[in-house]
Sequence to fold (446 residues):
Amino acid sequence: MSSTRLLSIQPRIIIHGGAGNISRDNLTSAAYEAYRKSLLSTLSSASESLQKPGATALDVATFAVSLLENDPLFNSGKGAVFTRAGTNELESSIMVSDGKRKRGVGCMLLKHVKNPIKLAREFLVQGDTGGGGGAQGHCQLSGEYLEGLAEEWGLDIVTPDYFFTQKRWDEHRRGLEAERELGSAIAQFQDPFPLSNNGSEAPTAGLGATGDPSWDGKEYLPQGTVGAVVLDSFGTLCVATSTGGLTNKLPGRIGDTPTLGAGYWAEEWFEEVSKSQMLYQSLPTPSSSTSSFDKLSRGDTPALISDCLPSTALRQPQVQASTSDNKSTEQQHSSQRHAVAMSGTGNGDSFLRVNAVRTAAAISRFSSPNTALSKAVSQVAGSGGELQKSAGDRWGKTGEGEGGIIGIELVGTHGSIVADFNCGGMFRAWVDDAGEQQCMVFKDEY
Fold:
């Protein structure tokens, strides 16, 4: 092998525990510490797994989200919220930037699968087997049939009472009671004289676009998800997301979490590098080198072989290919991999309307020159972004448009952590560029 130092891709990870109208008024210091402890514990365990030789983004992302599903603090798995009918209907999804036939899958209307994210992973993996392990070529499945596959695949099945927590039940009951009280108040104004009550208007505080009273702008009711985005040493990105949905949602409602492009997305592409980078390539350095593992995982055999040959002080200029036979070789030497993965959290119906995370990916991929993912995410989920715009004049009154996005962007061999949100707060934890674990809920320290 060449004596040139080879550098693999540095693994990265970020997780989230939901977003919404979180404030210092409704998040006590004790509650904050509980969330912080859980998020950092999950991050620590997942990061340790990510550093093991051969660790994959798919396995680590699944592991991280399964830990959050087991913690009743979060709106997923054990801590899932209730529908208006007093039932739990869970959703999950998983997607990789490359390496699997289906790339992404969504699971919905789950009532008996202990860890929905593990089902999503198996759904994805089974896609590479004959008949998709019973799921055929489908990328979205729901309800009884999917839970039957979960049992066949050996996943843990539980009775519905496993998901019961008193905290979520109390939130459910308070929401229904608030709706009844609000309905009675509105009824007082339904007469032939709309201004008969001293010219006042009918009360609308707390009503969403469809009369949803669960959002009052004061209490933090989980309307988001838990999620993880992971980059492994092979350059593969994976996003894993799980949720119980909106508090007091209608039975059968499907949100953004299991919907490709709305609440989760991962993709990669190859883009041309600058002419100067193409023509004169110096010896690999810690900032530009690509590992043999990476080249092997991408099928870049010519580049892998070149690592085994003696290198000169300065590589010769690339000669532009003149025949179609050399086209693929030319592309290998003049392009770099660019990949993104994101998980959304917040008002799922708003994420659906703007296809939020795929929109952010498209902004990054198809703008010229390419827009950094951090800026693209802010254009969608940041203050004044597409999510907020989708709420129109209902912004700040109904909970519509609220949410945030976490993600990772890979350019060449460098991975960057990304996060932004437009609401009160978003629970998130990540390992920063210096290798230190971080945890925040607001845009400044608690």
User: Anything to note?
Assistant: Residues 81 and 247 are 5 Å apart (CA to CA).
